[in-house]
Specification:
The structure is a homodimer of 235-residue chains. With 235 residues, chain A is of the alpha/beta class. The first copy, chain A, is built from nine helices and ten strands. In chain A, helix 2 packs antiparallel against helix 5 and helix 3 packs across helix 4. The N terminus and C terminus of chain A are likely disordered. The complex binds nicotinamide-adenine-dinucleotide (2 copies). One nicotinamide-adenine-dinucleotide sits at the interface of chains A and B. Chain B binds a DNA duplex (30 and 30 nucleotides) through helix 2, helix 4 and strand 2.
Chain lengths: 235, 235
DNA sequence: GTCCTTTTGTGAACCGGTGCACAAAGTGAG
DNA sequence: CTCACTTTGTGCACCGGTTCACAAAAGGAC
């Protein structure tokens, strides 16, 4: 039982913890800007909107970086979390599908700030190919594999229409990319080992609507029993 | 123990289930378009990308809508899920912050399709106010409360810069809205009873980067122990 | 040094959710 | 009507994650 710290760090940061680390990082960056040198788990937890015990347990998975009676060194913790997340290196991102959403993403400054660099924009529409957006030339989707290879793209953002998404995903995966952020409202099927994260606007709104309905039902003493199954239902 | 069905339905659909219902709904709509009348839990589960036992358990929370030996009636299930999610009514959505992202959202057709109607666009920039986007006039943020009241807005989408988000959220909540979809990278603080869902691009990318790093580390037999804490760290 | 205060790191109970596996319920053939 | 087959609905064991609560560690006062 020699490798105490190593044991904690190695091969096993819970997924739920990984998802919160960026939150802590953001809060810490704010604190660093305001000149704070150290922060307690309680304060950091409040800033990140979580419970302080959870925060401490999360951080304990990275190692023992706090000082009892004092708290955590802000700069040091920023470095450790950044390193853990892989933010100390530079990630080349390609955006495929340069429509409404793809353009917004390309123009968004928030990526670059933390190790992510938009390295390529790709689209199938000849009307769009050749456009200059955020200092980048939109290239034709035929160039996909070449662009991924040449620019060392390791993360692809999918912002094509739903029908094209699977087909593009297949090519992207075949080209060796194993991390995809998907905005198209489809369930992508990819081989083992490929990570997909999806952002789905419409699902978020539907979840809000569900709770909103419950809230208003409760007020108005809404229907408690299933009503009759009416005739027509639009899609 | 009289009210079996009611007991199942009433006051208690697990949050995880609610988050999956939109997925099932989407898959079902696809099947309805292709003319399928019934579907087995197995097939629907595959289409939605989940385990079939999970799907059955999820659906059992809404009631007993399947037929053993046959499966589920596609149209009927679409109706039941829609009703449960509150999609049989029309929701007025306001988008606050009509920049890159706000515009993309306003132009997006995917909302309207399922009970959500963009009823207002609001911005603080006089340059933007008055623009016509997707058939809507961009109104000044000063009109926020009046617009929410007059158009019956019950869901607000926040697409302002991070610094403005909390302030806008406070006004939105004060105006009686209890459902917010937040795109700004901040932890919003709102009173009990207000539902916030956040969509955070940057967090998604960071999670992908984490796993990507692990994958490449494993291949190259990367560092197993924490390295030295280097001098400077950029934010 | 001793004592008091602060705050971390974690053991352990708890909780929501997942998935296996199967009885119950339905269909259809003969 | 019976038998073979299909598929749902769910009991139950399990698992990851959350939260409480506290011992252990650190710092400061004297
Ligand atoms: N705009 C939004 O706010 C929003 C919100 C939620 C989800 N989405 C989803 O994001 C995706 C993009 O939305 P959008 O509004 O930007 O759509 P869009 O139609 O404006 O843009 C899609 C772009 O993809 C390109 N494209 C089509 N097929 C392609 C292919 N095979 N390879 C490369 N490029 C291809 C098109 O030329 C077009 O430029 C859609 O799947 C949409 O459902 C968008
Ligand atoms: N564009 C993206 O792809 C993207 C991705 C992730 C997150 N975000 C986040 O979404 C938000 C919007 O991004 P964006 O790229 O559209 O920014 P943007 O600067 O293009 O647009 C912001 C808009 O909000 C308006 N605004 C500012 N203060 C306001 C106020 N008090 N009330 C009403 N409107 C106000 C501005 O006038 C501007 O039109 C930001 O918080 C950003 O961090 C954007």
């Amino acid at each position: 039982m020699i490798r105490r710290l190593s044991q904690a760090r190695e091969r096993g940061i819970p997924e739920a913890t990984v998802a919160r680390l960026p939150l802590y990082l953001r809060a810490l960056n704010g604190m660093a800007e305001r000149g704070l040198a150290t922060v307690s788990s309680e304060d950091l937890a409040v800033a990140a909107g979580v419970n302080s015990a959870k925060l401490r347990k999360d951080l304990s998975h990275l190692g023992s970086y706090g000082t009892r009676g004092v708290g955590y060194d802000v700069e040091y913790l920023i470095y450790q979390i950044s390193r853990e997340l892989g933010l100390t290196q530079d990630w080349a991102v390609a955006i495929v599908g340069v429509g409404n959403l793809g353009r917004a993403l390309a123009n968004y400054g928030g990526f670059v700030s933390r190790g992510f660099r938009v390295a390529a924009l790709l689209d199938a529409d000849p009307e769009v190919v050749g456009d200059h957006i955020a200092g980048l030339n939109v290239e034709h989707i035929d160039e996909l594999e070449a662009v991924i290879r040449r620019r060392g793209v390791s993360i692809v953002v999918l912002a094509t229409p739903a029908v094209a998404a699977q087909q593009v995903a297949d090519r992207v995966v075949a080209a060796g990319v194993t991390s995809i952020l998907n905005f198209a409202p489809v369930v992508l099927s990819v081989p083992e080992g490929v990570d997909i994260r999806k952002v789905d606007l419409s699902i978020e709104l539907q979840i809000l609507a569900f709770h909103e309905q419950r809230k208003t039902d409760r007020m108005t003493g809404g229907p408690t029993m299933a009503e009759e199954w009416p005739e027509a239902v639009d899609l």
